[in-house]
Amino acid sequence: MGHGLSQRRFQRVKAPAKSELEELVQLISQRVGRCLEHQGLLEQDSESAWLDLGPADDSDAMPHLLGSSVSYRIAVGPQQGRKAFMIRTIRPLDRPDPGLERVAKANGFSLHAGVSCEGHQKDKRERLCRYTARPALAVPRLSLSSTGKVLYTLKTPYRDGTTQVAFDPVDFIARLAALVPKPRINLTRYHGVLAPNHRWRGEVTPARRGKALKTGSNAEARTPTECHAAMTWA
């Protein structure tokens, strides 16, 4: 980006290489791990690391439900602490997935940089928005087995051949509870010049919202519509 109000503009850069993604996801996992350690939520030794959320108390069971969900463990019931039950009905895939060319994984973290959208590609932008705004699960893919298990059929089988995940009914409710966001929590995070507190945010976003325009000397008058709506579609 340039250095003047009239010069600041986005410029195209080369797509990241797989090695760059792998390096970045390693850095992310290390920083998140250190943050969890400082909060007393992560225990680790020379060979492994695990979440230590402590016993759930009667006043707030959510930390335990969240910890079980992110570690793919059963949260409640006689099987508590065990891995979720996966049903494999096809052979594992032995060929590389071309869709993973710009995906890096490390220590349970994944970083995806394989989707880009031009400003004029409205159809592609709509598909991307629909993907990010999709519900947590697809109700038509839910079913009940003959043994009373809740079965969720995956839209795309995992590479290890998994096509369904089975839950006890109570544990399935616990998984749903873990997906409910806390009040007033932002579900979409922006970084760089798009971050809420960045001094250039008001100069590069359509609604021109940003601290610089509120307090800076170059503040410009905005219409009531610009002051009210963050995005025109909203």
What does this structure look like?
The chain contains seven helices and eight strands, in the order H-E-E-H-E-E-E-H-E-E-E-H-H-H-H. It has two domains: 18-179, no CATH class; 192-228, no CATH class. The strands form three sheets. A four-stranded antiparallel β-sheet has the order 3-8-7-6. A two-stranded antiparallel ribbon has the order 1-2. A two-stranded antiparallel ribbon has the order 4-5. Helix 2 crosses helix 4. The chain is an alpha+beta fold and 234 residues long. The model has no long low-confidence stretch (mean pLDDT 80).
Rounded radius of gyration (Å): 22 Å
User: Globular, elongated, flat, extended or rod-shaped: what is the shape?
Assistant: globular
Measure the end-to-end span: 28 Å
* SSE class: alpha+beta
> What order do the SSEs take from the amino end to the carboxyl end, as H and E?
HEEHEEEHEEEHHHH
Structure summary, number of beta strands: 8
Enumerate the spans where pLDDT stays under 50 for 5 or more consecutive residues. Answer: none
Counted up, domains total 2
List the total number of helices: 7
Bin the strand percentage: 5-15%
Question: What does the secondary structure layout of this molecule look like, with pairings?
Answer:
Layout: H1 18-38, E1 42-44, E2 49-51, H2 62-70, E3 85-88, E4 103-106, E5 109-112, H3 122-132, E6 142-144, E7 150-153, E8 162-167, H4 169-179, H5 201-204, H6 211-215, H7 224-228
Antiparallel strand pairs: 1-2, 3-8, 4-5, 6-7, 7-8
Helix pairs in contact: 2-4
Give a quick rundown of the structure.
By secondary structure, the protein is an alpha+beta fold. The chain has helices spanning 18-38, 62-70, 122-132, 169-179, 201-204, 211-215, 224-228, and strands at residues 42-44, 49-51, 85-88, 103-106, 109-112, 142-144, 150-153, 162-167.
